[in-house]
Amino acid sequence: LIVFVLVSSGNFTAEYEKGTLIPVVTRGLARWKILAAKSVFLYGAWTVLYMTCFGITYGYNAYFWDNGIAGNLFFAAACTWLFGVWVIALLILFSAVSKTGSQVLLGTGGVALGVYLLDMFPKLDAFLPARLMKGLELMQRSGSPEDYYASMAAAGITILLCMGGAVLSFGRKQL
Question: Could you report the per-residue pLDDT of 110-166, keeping only the tens digit for each?
């Protein structure tokens, strides 16, 4: 995920710096469609790469050891995938707001770090997207999928808010 964010952080900002969005916008393509196309690409790339990594790991674990020992394996994997989607939504929001790739990285990393720090408080733990990265509890059967529903809902709401904010900001951004 960290490598994916590092590679993708300049996705929008390189377009701003090169001025390649100006001809597309002046020919009548709506800005929200540009944002939607780039977002679909990022979400799709994350999904394909994550599923490939999970499939390879699942395959060699099944070959060398036994995957049956892990409980709620696919739910834990889905939680980690959703956390990645949440981080990408932050990346898209900060890409629409910021002018440079380093600002995108600082914003995305700052929010993710803030959520991890807030996760240290036990009363907030159940409602933060950082809980989605605690799949080991699920696989060891010390937690149940119901414990993750609130953090999944929080991640989903945050994703929608980030995408809405990105559409509004990108629509007003001076290219």
Answer: 999 999 999 888 888 889 999 999 888 888 888 889 999 999 999 999 999 999 999
Tokens of residue 157, six digits? 């709401």
> How would DSSP label each residue in 84-153?
HHHHHHHHHHHHHH-SSHHHHHHHHHHHHHHHHHHTTSHHHHTTSGGGGG-HHHHHTTSS-GGGGHHHHH
Do the beta carbons of residue 137 and residue 143 sit within 8 Å? Answer: yes
d(CA 115, CA 25): 36
User: What span, in angstroms and rounded, lies between the C-alpha atoms of 136 and 143?
Assistant: 9
Contact between 61 and 16 (Cβ < 8 Å): no
10 Å CB burial of residue 97 (0-12, 13-18, 19+) is middle
